[in-house]
């Protein structure tokens, strides 16, 4: 089969790789129908994630059809259409019982990280019963690919951790696929305002289409001044979806007393945690790795068209254009890319 293989920092190849086979009785072998690329794949390719070694097939998002299941798989059979979760988990250990699937004692593996991933014609899914979700054969597969990772990330680590509630003023810093997923799912909870903050004007324009009530470009405007003028004492919830100290600082500046800062971005270096000014405002700060414990709920919201995450797709490719898809995704500002879809055939 063909697969996108990480060949060491800066190197990748779309090449022949051995087709995966069942290893454990709880495994399923899934033919990938559609996949996509995540910012994390670009971090891995740069060599920023040393745990990922040369030879690894990348990708942790996708939908597919079950080709084969192990003897201990109860919920799926050959021919079933499935959504693949970016996190594989046993469903039985102490952490899984708390729905902290990312910390599963026999998994918590992000596909395309410590095990081979979904940017391939076929993928092995460990603990299939807990790591796959059934979808109807005629489902909107492109929309559902957004549920493997970015929608649950935005919802769980941004919106739920930030405790967004009706009437809140919410600020989201970062209008990439993750920040946009925060924007789409925050609207479930009826905030009064959602302010999107980003330095990329075309992303800010998209954010308006997806429901942002206001946008601010910090490269051109003083964010704190604007928010102070408009809100009296700041925003109720500030969600960081970039992963750099500057944007975490914006959240610390604009939060009101009693507010929540929900950090979603993955920070390569330490942020300046300004406890000296946060303690007196009774601020709650949260952070975390997506657990994908709201995927079933999100599936229902897509099926009922409450949200349409296919809005995030800007480019479409076939599997044999995988390298071209990477080129376009890696040059997001130039190509105006949000999410790409790569289809098998
Ligand atoms: P992205 O790079 O596509 O988007 C980041 C956005 O930040 C861009 O639109 C960019 O224009 C904007 N930006 C950059 N510098 C800025 C600045 N100084 N001020 C304002 N905006 C600025 O990234 P993404 O794929 O949307 O992911 C966002 C973050 O979420 C990343 O750090 C990623 O690693 C993280 N993430 C976390 C989890 C989790 O489980 N917590 C899961 C997936 C991704
Ligand atoms: Zn991802
Ligand atoms: Zn577990």
What does this protein look like?
The protein is α/β, with parallel strands linked by helices. Helices cover 28% and strands 24% of the residues. The chain is built from 13 helices and 17 strands. The strands form four sheets. Strands 3, 4, 5, 8, 9, 16 and 17 form a seven-stranded mixed β-sheet that branches. Strands 12-11-10-13-14-15 form a six-stranded parallel β-sheet, sandwiched between helices. Strand 14 (255-263), helix 10 and strand 15 form a beta-alpha-beta unit. The radius of gyration is 20 Å and the shape is globular. The model has no long low-confidence stretch (mean pLDDT 96). The chain binds nicotinamide-adenine-dinucleotide (NAD) and zinc ion (ZN) (2 copies). One zinc ion (ZN) binds next to helix 2. Its cofactor is Zn(2+). Belongs to the zinc-containing alcohol dehydrogenase family.
């Amino acid at each position: 089969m063909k697969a996108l293989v990480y060949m060491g920092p800066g190197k990748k190849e779309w090449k022949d790789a051995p087709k995966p086979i069942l290893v454990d009785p709880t495994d399923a072998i899934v033919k990938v129908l559609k996949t996509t690329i995540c910012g994390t794949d670009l971090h891995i390719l740069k060599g920023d994630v040393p745990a990922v070694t040369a030879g690894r097939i990348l990708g942790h998002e996708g939908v597919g059809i079950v080709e084969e299941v192990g003897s201990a798989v109860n919920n799926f059979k050959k021919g079933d259409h499935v959504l693949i979760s970016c996190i594989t988990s046993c469903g039985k250990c102490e952490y899984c019982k708390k729905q902290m699937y990312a910390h599963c004692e026999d998994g918590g593996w992000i596909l395309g990280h410590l095990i081979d991933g979904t940017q391939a014609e076929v993928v092995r899914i460990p603990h299939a019963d807990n790591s796959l979700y059934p979808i109807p054969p005629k489902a909107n597969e492109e929309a559902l690919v957004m549920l493997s990772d970015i929608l649950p990330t935005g919802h769980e680590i941004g919106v739920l951790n930030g405790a967004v509630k009706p009437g809140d003023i919410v600020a989201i810093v970062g209008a990439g696929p993750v920040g946009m997923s925060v924007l789409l799912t925050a609207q479930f909870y009826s905030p009064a305002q959602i302010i999107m903050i980003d330095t990329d004007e075309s992303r800010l324009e998209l954010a308006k289409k997806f429901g942002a009530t206001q946008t601010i470009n910090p490269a051109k405007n003083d964010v704190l001044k604007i928010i102070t003028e408009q809100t009296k004492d700041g925003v109720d919830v500030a969600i960081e979806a970039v992963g750099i100290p500057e944007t975490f600082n914006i959240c610390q500046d604009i939060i009101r007393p009693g507010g929540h800062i929900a950090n979603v971005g993955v920070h390569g270096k330490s942020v300046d945690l300004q406890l000296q000014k946060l303690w007196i405002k009774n601020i709650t700060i949260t952070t975390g790795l997506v657990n994908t414990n709201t995927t079933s709920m999100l599936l229902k919201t897509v099926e009922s068209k409450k949200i349409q995450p296919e809005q995030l797709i800007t480019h479409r490719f076939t599997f044999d254009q995988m390298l071209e898809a990477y080129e376009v995704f890696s040059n997001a500002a130039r190509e105006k890319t949000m999410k790409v879809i790569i289809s098998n055939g």
